[in-house]
Design goal:
This protein is α/β, with parallel strands linked by helices. It has one domain: Undecaprenyl pyrophosphate synthetase (3-Layer(aba) Sandwich), CATH 3.40.1180. The chain contains 8 helices and 6 strands; from the N terminus they run βαααβαβαβααββα. Strands 3-4-2-1-5-6 form a 6-stranded parallel beta sheet, with helices on both faces.
């Protein structure tokens, strides 16, 4: 596939973890354990790199997820911490840069420290990038960006606004994949994703694998994008 047919930036909305678990008579968080397993995540990261997708973003925890049962929230955040620590041991083999997008003031302090540490340790890698959206919401990101610009007293245009977002040096989204058959974006990157192609996959995220990612990217390559032109 030519580079002009490749999405530079792919975002995955990993939906359906709890439905996957309930369908199997399991506790809701068992779906998170399955989808958030190290083997599952690293296989997606490596497939993206193999395909030539330079930026892969995965939405791990939204600003609205705080409304869930405290036990489930704690399990999600502890699982994220464990995976970040696991990645810290292995990610250098693949030379993948890790970045956190989202709020940093509400997540547990240890998780924030480990994310910051991994970001610094991998900051020299350029060819393959993974963004973890944690305590992220599209409206929240926009409001934080607006407040940054207000504090600086800057005149706002598209360029200055984009630089105030969490994705400041990351290209706009080309392809958004949502699993579990739901057909909505739930506020994901409303500014960066205005011309993103959409792919809705019926599989719940615990069953979504590297082959499914490849299929979505190949389908993207068949689409014609006009960006409002002819």
């Amino acid at each position: 596939m030519g580079s002009d047919k490749l999405p530079a930036h792919v975002v995955i909305i990993p939906d359906g973890n709890r439905r996957w678990a309930r369908a199997r008579g399991l506790k809701p968080w068992e779906g998170h354990y399955k989808s958030g397993s190290y083997d599952n995540l690293i296989s997606l990261f490596r497939e993206a790199k193999k395909l030539g997708v330079k930026y892969l973003s995965i939405w791990a925890f939204s600003t609205e997820n705080w409304k869930r049962d405290k036990k489930e929230v704690d399990i999600l955040l502890n699982l994220t911490l464990k995976r970040i620590m696991d990645l810290g041991k292995e990610i250098h083999k693949d030379k993948i840069r890790i970045r956190h997008l989202g709020r940093k003031d509400r997540i547990p302090a240890k998780l924030a420290r480990e994310l910051e540490k991994l970001e610094k340790e991998t900051s020299g890698y350029k060819d393959s990038n993974v963004q973890i959206l944690l305590d992220y919401g599209g409206r929240d990101e926009i409001l934080r960006a607006v407040n940054k610009l207000v504090e600086k007293g800057e005149k706002v245009d598209e360029l200055t606004f984009s630089k105030a977002l969490d994705t400041a040096d990351i290209p706009d989204v080309d392809l958004i994949i949502r699993t579990s058959g739901e057909k909505r974006l739930s506020g994901l990157m409303p500014f960066q994703g205005v011309y993103a192609e959409l792919c809705f996959v019926d599989k719940h995220f615990p069953d979504f694998n590297a082959e499914d990612l490849r299929t979505a990217v190949e389908d993207f390559g068949k689409r014609k994008r006009n960006f409002g032109g002819n």
